[in-house]
């Protein structure tokens, strides 16, 4: 996912669903879906400068029955999502 472009983040509150949409190196749209969302943090401080490109994506072990996924953007911001289940692109 390195150098993919972050396009959009959506939260469907009632459904407990968050989607993170990206454009990959082939310019195709790829989506990460977080089901049974518990928490999402979306800073936009641009500490390293303005960027929409992904540096790296990491996933942690279960935290109290949920999984944490972090998306580090090349702006220096890290989006954190805590949810019960995730769907990742192939």
Could you describe the 3D structure shown?
The chain is an all-beta fold and 90 residues long. The chain has one domain (5-87). 0% of the residues lie in helices and 57% in strands. It is built from no helices and 6 strands. It is globular. It starts with a strand and ends with a strand. The model has no long low-confidence stretch (mean pLDDT 96).
Quick structural gist:
This protein is an all-beta fold. The chain has strands at 5-12, 17-23, 29-41, 54-59, 67-73, 78-87.
Strand order of the largest sheet: 1-2-3-6-5-4
Q: How many domain regions?
A: 1
Give the overall shape, derived from the CA principal axes: globular
Helix content: under 10%
- Report the C-alpha radius of gyration, rounded: 13 Å
Listing every helix as H and every strand as E from the N terminus to the C terminus, the arrangement reads EEEEEE
Strand fraction = over 45%
Q: Which runs of at least 5 residues are low in confidence (pLDDT < 50)? A: none
What is the arithmetic mean of pLDDT?
A: 96
Which features characterize this protein?
90 residues, mainly beta, 0% helix, six-stranded antiparallel β-sheet
Q: What is the topology?
A:
Layout: E1 5-12, E2 17-23, E3 29-41, E4 54-59, E5 67-73, E6 78-87
Antiparallel strand pairs: 1-2, 2-3, 3-6, 4-5, 5-6
């Amino acid at each position: 996912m390195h150098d993919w472009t972050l396009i959009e983040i959506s939260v469907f509150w009632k459904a407990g669903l968050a989607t993170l949409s990206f454009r990959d190196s082939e310019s195709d749209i790829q989506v990460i879906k977080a089901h049974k969302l518990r928490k999402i943090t979306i800073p936009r401080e641009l500490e390293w400068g303005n960027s929409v490109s992904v540096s790296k994506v990491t996933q942690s072990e279960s935290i109290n029955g949920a999984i944490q996924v972090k998306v580090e953007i090349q702006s220096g911001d890290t989006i954190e999502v805590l949810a019960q289940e995730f769907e990742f692109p192939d």
